[in-house]
Amino acid sequence: MFTMGQFYETIPESLVKWIRAQKVFWVATAPLSPEGHVNVSPKGGPYFGILDTKTFWYLDLSGSGNETISHLYEKNNGRITVMFNAFEGPPRIVRLFGHGTVLENGTDSFNTFVKKHEVRLLPGARSIILVHVHQVGSSCGFSVPYFEFKDWRTTLNEFFARKADRFDKGDSKESMEKYWALKNSESVDGLPGLDIARKTAKEDGIVPLTKMVGAGATHGGQRTRKQLSFGVLHLALVAVIASFATVFLQPVFGELLKSLESTFQH
After folding, report:
1. In the chain, how long is the greatest CA-to-CA distance?
2. pLDDT, tens digit, for every residue of 16-72?
3. Is residue 78 within 8 Å of residue 191, measured between CB atoms?
4. Among positive and negative, which fits the CA dihedral 127, 79, 12, 141?
């Protein structure tokens, strides 16, 4: 029996049909560094599934961002949460908590998965994300508004279909590997992204796209740490100067005060 506000160690059978019927879900990941950026990505389309009560998967389509893959690849990380909302019918929110595995397009693991589970590939598909679920959380969703589903957006699929067509006709600049090298080699915090992207960037001399600018930009948290170090350094310098002032100037001010007192007394 599925109950709101409960946690489960596996995906309840009563939820499987409902999850598969959803039109959109959200994926959340984060780097280990407290100075890194938490990422939330919306995923739309019927490109996901449930293998068993502890394994969820989705087809990861190409885009300018690369956060989920970078966070899953990060050593000692791999944390991921997938969230579903009910926008029609009874209110409901379901979260799948787990650790993720990246199956990159072109690898044996990717090809084996696609063949075994008869996954329909789309132009620009860069990986399959496996979520090894260790907790499932439910909540009411009473404040989530109603939305009526109109249709799927086809823009992304059409964009990469045209790109693939140009590549097939001989335009080598339109290769997905070059696209990934430019946009998917690193996360916004400078964490490594797709393996094939980094390999292609190195071989072809492609400089990965800079994704953040200005005071809030980071590269593996380095900027923030430098700013913090810079601030601490200045505070330490002020403290040292104050200490020296107290030690060396106090006698001078003491004599000055005595002189002033003597003057007023006379």
Report:
1. 104
2. 999 999 999 999 999 999 999 999 999 999 999 999 999 999 999 999 999 999 999
3. no
4. negative
